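Might you be able to review the protein record set out just below?
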Amino acid sequence: MILLINDKPTETKAQTLAGLVVELNIEGAFALALNQNFVPKSQYANTLINENDRIEIVAPMQGG
């Protein structure tokens, strides 16, 4: 299926956010928003993704 990840069309075979994290090899500190709603990491395994969903991968920033 095709998802829009950080505004870029991306093909995936993952069915959940947890599967997507593994497939994309996302590591370190990050947060995921699914269709503009942040999802707690504890829910990634139970959160299904669907064709044309919008995923935002957000990394914390430091500075001032």
